[in-house]
Amino acid sequence: MNISTGISLSGIEGKVVAITGASSGIGEATALLLAERGAKVVLGARRSDRLEALAARIVNAGGEAAYASIDVRRRDDLSTLVQLACERYGKLDVLVNNAGVMPISPLDDLRVEDWEAMIDINIKGVLYGIAAALPVFRKQGFGHFVNTASTAAFRIVPNQSVYAGTKFAVRAISEGLRQEAGDKLRVTIISPGFTRTDGVGAAVTNPEVKAQLEESRDKFAMPPEAIARSIAFAIEQPADIDVSEVIVRPTAQG
Fold first, then answer.
1. Residues 6+ apart with CB under 8 A from 118
2. Model confidence at 10: pLDDT above 70
3. pLDDT at res. 121
4. Does residue 86 contact residue 130 with C-beta atoms inside 8 Å?
5. pLDDT tens string 184-224
6. In this predicted structure, which of 1-15, 95-109, 116-130 has the lowest mean pLDDT?
7. Are the beta carbons of 117 and 166 closer than 8 angstroms?
8. Are the C-beta atoms of residues 125 and 99 closer than 8 Å to each other?
9. For the chain, what are the domain ranges?
10. Do 115 and 62 meet the contact criterion of CB atoms below 8 Å apart?
11. Top CATH class, 16-247
12. 73 within 8 A of 48, measured Cβ to Cβ
């Protein structure tokens, strides 16, 4: 029991959790929270300097962390992350497929390269994570996928057609995986609403869309720690309890 919070660590303590997109935003917040609650975190992202700093922060606070510079667009990189977890800690309890991009724009802008990036990272990145971890989970006889979707997977708005399509796909793939998983594996879909992360607006080139995003972010976006707490809630449940889907949004979001 953590005396300061009154929260039991038993459901998270000692679990090995690999996280993609771990260098900032939701991934970083999740790594910090889970490590604080006793998990051994294995961090994956493209920015090795950010990963190194985050791992050092966790270790200096008394936690355990390993990291690998990966790009979820490369299938072998996901295998590397899963292999690192297994070699360093002897198992993998949870894979958090969190890496994602959101370079939204009107379809008329024909930002085809942005469309391809969202498909490659948001969809194929999740599939590559599943391909890397599923055989390990089957061999172990336990495992938990936590896949990050979005409220855009429920409500389509202008300028987010392709982004929403990728997040609809994450929900569909995850639900199909849950039904195929059997009674030994767990699958959770986390659908965040507007979250204050580095990626919001960063890759948006359309000035009008960028201004709208930044205005909404400044008004009511929630901190990434809100999503980290939801992920922790799903992970800490007993092995026979599957938190299938969680939607978290700011109360001010329409």
1. 101, 102, 103, 162, 163, 166
2. no
3. 98
4. no
5. 999 999 999 999 876 655 677 787 877 777 777 777 889 99
6. 1-15
7. no
8. yes
9. 16-247
10. no
11. alpha beta
12. no
End-to-end CA distance of the chain: 38
SS3 for the chain, per residue?
CECCCCECCCCCCCCEEEEECCCCHHHHHHHHHHHHCCCEEEEEECCHHHHHHHHHHHHHCCCEEEEEECCCCCHHHHHHHHHHHHHHHCCCCEEEECCCCCCCCCHHHCCHHHHHHHHHHHHHHHHHHHHHHHHHHHHHCCEEEEEECCHHHCCCCCCCHHHHHHHHHHHHHHHHHHHHHCCCEEEEEEEECCECCCCCCCCCCCHHHHHHHHHHHHHHCECCHHHHHHHHHHHCCCCCCCCCEEEECCCCCC
And the tokens for 72?
Answer: 């979820």
- Predicted TM-score (pTM) of this structure: 0.92
Q: Could you tell me the two tokens for 63?
A: 């936690």
What integer pLDDT is reported at residue 202 of this predicted model? 61
Q: Which two tokens stand for residue 218?
A: 């400044």
Residue type, 194: F
Q: How distant is the alpha carbon of residue 202 from its chain centre?
A: 18
Count the neighbouring beta carbons within 10 Å of the beta carbon of residue 81: 28
The one-letter amino acid code at 108 reads D
Residue written as tokens 């996901």? 78
* Orientation angle between helical segments 25-36 and 225-235, nearest 10 degrees: 50
- Contact (Cβ atoms closer than 8 angstroms) between residue 72 and residue 78: yes
pLDDT of residue 2: 46
Q: With 80 as the cut, is the pLDDT of residue 12 above it?
A: yes
Catalytic residues, which ones? 163
